[in-house]
């Protein structure tokens, strides 16, 4: 028997109703399980009393979820959903206040949301210095600051403050950075280019090839942050800003050109600062600062303990040792290594390093960023 168009439509409608009813049942079960998880988290908070947020525990949960992910959702989506559930549960136990390099709409705010989820209260700071001070004074629980970009290298002010500050590094987060040309106008007018372009100095540098090709004569004005650039562009109709989508939405700007960064894999790494570092998570990094004694072969002698104990070094960067004295050409070295300082091999390597270095400061051990 042939099925008419009306019969087929009726069968499709019945199938849709059945599928939607199934989704409703699953949503109810998800809500029940999330609520049960929240009650368990509350009970853990009652037992622990002290610091509730444990970066190593969150990292372990996120890794386990990815390993168990059956699809079809990609790992990144599963991690994002789980992060938000953990964030909401943590807020029931201990509401967090997080400082970040502001104003609202910066990439640092996006990194803070990626790491902590939507539940904490975010406190924008006018400078990296202010974010460090907020943690030192106990005015916030944690701070998020940029430390390096894959295109433009290290953020010098963050490195300088890590040397002089008492804060600990308890986490890291990497964020793919997409730069956009923003303006109040709906489109670029080739006969009347913008009067100027505002952005952070690093963002201008990350987009210099695109700017040279498309707007070579327009002055580029560095400002404190991309969000500040967007705010200024919103107040000056004849100007543009380079910033992210969040800044465009917050300040009511149009995206005239998207993803204008010169390197498609442009990524910024941010550090999570607190009054403590993290326990071992199983996939960790340790960050430290040290100086070599002024003698021949000093660097080889300084770094030899890592090779002797099988420790992989992932980053080595030098910087003038302004706050340590030692002369005009004195330098310190910022080093990231794989592993947690509580691990016996790494502890032995650090002890040997301490005996050889003119100066050693361990900034913290923390879970390596996932994705």
UniProtKB/TrEMBL annotation:
Record domain Prephenate dehydratase: where: 97-275
Biological process annotations from GO: chorismate metabolic process; L-phenylalanine biosynthetic process
Alphabetized GO MF terms: chorismate mutase activity; prephenate dehydratase activity
Pathway involvement of the protein, from the record: Amino-acid biosynthesis; L-phenylalanine biosynthesis; phenylpyruvate from prephenate: step 1/1; Metabolic intermediate biosynthesis; prephenate biosynthesis; prephenate from chorismate: step 1/1
Subcellular location: Cytoplasm
Coiled-coil regions, chain positions: none
Residue ranges annotated for the Chorismate mutase domain, each copy included: 10-97
The protein's name: Bifunctional chorismate mutase/prephenate dehydratase
Annotated gene: pheA
């Amino acid at each position: 028997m042939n099925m008419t168009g009306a019969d087929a439509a009726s069968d499709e409608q019945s199938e849709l109703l059945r599928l939607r009813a199934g989704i409703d049942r699953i949503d109810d079960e998800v809500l029940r399980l999330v609520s049960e998880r929240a009650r368990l988290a509350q009970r853990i908070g009652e037992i622990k009393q002290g610091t509730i947020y444990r970066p190593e525990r969150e990292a372990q949960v996120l890794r386990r979820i990815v390993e168990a992910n059956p699809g079809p959702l990609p790992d990144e989506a599963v991690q994002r959903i789980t992060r938000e559930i953990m964030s909401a549960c943590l807020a029931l136990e201990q509401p967090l206040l997080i400082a970040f390099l502001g104003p609202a709409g910066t990439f640092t705010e996006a990194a803070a949301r990626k790491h902590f989820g939507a539940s904490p209260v975010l406190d924008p700071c006018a400078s990296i210095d202010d974010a460090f001070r907020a943690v030192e004074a106990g005015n916030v629980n944690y701070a998020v600051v940029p430390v390096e970009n894959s295109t433009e290298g290290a953020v010098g002010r963050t490195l300088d403050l890590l040397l002089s500050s008492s804060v600990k590094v308890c986490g890291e987060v990497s964020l793919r950075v997409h730069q956009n040309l923003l303006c109040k106008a709906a489109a670029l007018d080739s006969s009347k280019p913008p009067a100027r372009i505002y952005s952070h100095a690093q963002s201008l540098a990350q987009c210099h090839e695109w700017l040279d090709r498309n707007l070579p004569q327009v002055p580029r004005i560095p400002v404190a942050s991309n969000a500040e650039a967007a705010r200024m562009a919103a107040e000056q109709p004849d100007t543009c800003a380079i910033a992210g989508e969040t800044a465009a939405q917050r300040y009511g700007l149009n995206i005239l050109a998207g993803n204008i960064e010169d390197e498609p894999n442009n990524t910024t790494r941010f550090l999570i600062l607190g009054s403590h570092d993290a326990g071992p998570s199983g996939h960790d990094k340790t960050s430290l600062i040290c100086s070599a004694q002024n003698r021949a072969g000093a660097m080889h002698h300084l770094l030899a303990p890592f090779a002797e104990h099988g420790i992989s070094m992932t980053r080595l960067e030098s910087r003038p040792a302004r706050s340590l004295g030692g002369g005009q050409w004195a330098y310190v070295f910022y080093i990231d290594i794989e592993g947690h300082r509580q691990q016996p091999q790494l502890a032995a390597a650090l002890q040997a390093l301490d005996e050889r270095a003119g100066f050693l400061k361990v900034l913290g051990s923390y879970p390596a960023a996932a994705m």
